[in-house]
């Protein structure tokens, strides 16, 4: 009999490139992971790892095993979901994670609704970027990741994950109260070409690069005068007349700040898609079914719900 945990360890070594990183993801010591992988190789009677400088690489036999392991692990998730369906009084824990605005605008309201229905339910929420969320999901550290997909995260067609669309949201221009653009029902991005701009810090998330790309498509390079790492700081900078910014519909700021959200109009209005992601085979788990339904119900009217 093969220990599925060892298959999972091998998968993480392949993902992270080192035994040490895989061990950190599973909260184990590198020696423990190495021991399990040696035992797996002994049971299968094939070498699985070979040294490559300071890292290790998987042997051809290990790559073949991983191709089958993805299907086995997905079937195991389906088995757990079926078993959970027969268990009465499901109490969790239900673990969800997502990027900042997803936590504030979707995950927190969904978790609140679930707790009002079932006060005994244990819920755990973590705020993180999409790359970290996919790592947590792969490592079994979370059950649902709410993500903004990029070309690389998660990799298209990754057999470990099951993704479904949740919403599509437009991005709005925010300007100080009293700004000439604040009086208009809608503006084009080009209307703000001459403004000072406030952006999320480039190292905080992908939003800065997206803003630069949107403005380039509109025919100008924004003059970035200030950077911040939180939406509340961006709101404060805009409110005090230090510039304008581009924000997603899920993002909000303090209600007492004199900031006006102006919808963008015309061709090519910037939009982003938000997805839910679970481990393949786990979407039928009763708690995950409930949580996904709560996330869909939490989508605000200013965003567009997307059918699965």
Topology (SSEs and partners):
Blueprint: H1 4-16, H2 19-26, H3 30-44, E1 49-52, E2 55-58, H4 60-85, E3 94-98, H5 100-117, E4 123-127, H6 130-138, E5 144-147, E6 161-176, E7 196-200, H7 207-217, E8 223-228, H8 231-239, E9 245-248, E10 259-262, E11 271-279, H9 286-298, E12 304-305
Helix pairs in contact: 1-2, 1-3, 1-4, 2-3, 5-9
CATH class of the largest domain: Alpha Beta
CATH topology of the largest domain: D-Maltodextrin-Binding Protein, domain 2
CATH homology superfamily of the largest domain: Periplasmic binding protein-like II
Low-confidence stretches: none
What gap, in angstroms, lies between the N and C termini?
37 Å
In DSSP terms (H or I, runs of 4 or more residues), the helix count works out at 9
Helix content: 25-40%
Q: Which structural category do the helix and sheet elements fall into?
A: alpha/beta
Biggest sheet features: 8 strands, mixed
Query: Architecture of the largest domain, according to CATH?
Result: 3-Layer(aba) Sandwich
Task: Identify the overall geometry.
Answer: elongated
Number of domains: 3
Please provide the ordered H/E string of secondary-structure elements: HHHEEHEHEHEEEHEHEEEHE
* Number of separate strands: 12
> How much of the sequence is in beta strands?
15-25%
* Rounded average pLDDT: 87
Radius of gyration: 23 Å
């Amino acid at each position: 009999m093969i220990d599925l945990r060892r298959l999972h360890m091998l998968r993480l070594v392949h993902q992270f490139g080192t035994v040490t990183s895989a061990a950190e993801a599973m909260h184990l010591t590198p020696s423990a992971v190495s021991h399990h992988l040696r035992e797996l190789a002994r049971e299968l009677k094939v070498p699985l790892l070979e040294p490559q400088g300071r890292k290790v690489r998987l042997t051809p036999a290990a790559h073949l095993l991983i191709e089958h392991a993805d299907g086995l692990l997905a079937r195991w998730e389906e088995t757990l979901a079926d078993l959970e369906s027969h268990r009465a009084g499901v109490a969790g824990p239900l673990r969800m994670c997502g990027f900042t605005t997803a936590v504030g605008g979707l995950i927190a309201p969904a978790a609140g609704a679930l707790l009002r229905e079932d006060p005994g339910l244990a819920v755990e929420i973590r705020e993180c970027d999409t790359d970290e969320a996919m790592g947590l999901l792969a490592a079994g550290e979370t059950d649902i990741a709410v993500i903004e997909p990029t070309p690389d995260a998660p990799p298209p067609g990754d057999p470990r994950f099951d993704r479904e669309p949740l919403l599509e949201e437009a991005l709005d221009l925010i300007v100080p109260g009293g700004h000439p653009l604040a009086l208009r029902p809608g503006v084009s991005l080009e209307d703000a070409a001459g403004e000072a701009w406030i952006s999320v810090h480039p190292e905080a998330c992908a939003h800065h690069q997206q803003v630069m790309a949107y403005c380039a498509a509109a025919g100008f390079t924004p003059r970035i005068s200030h950077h911040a790492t939180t939406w509340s700081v961006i709101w404060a900078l805009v409110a005090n007349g230090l510039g304008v910014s581009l924000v997603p519909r899920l993002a909000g700021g303090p209600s007492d700040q004199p900031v006006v959200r102006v919808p963008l109009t015309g061709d090519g209005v910037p939009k982003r898609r938000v997805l839910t992601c679970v481990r393949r085979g786990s979407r039928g788990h009763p708690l995950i079914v409930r949580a996904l339904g709560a996330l869909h119900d939490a989508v605000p009217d200013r965003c567009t719900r997307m059918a699965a």
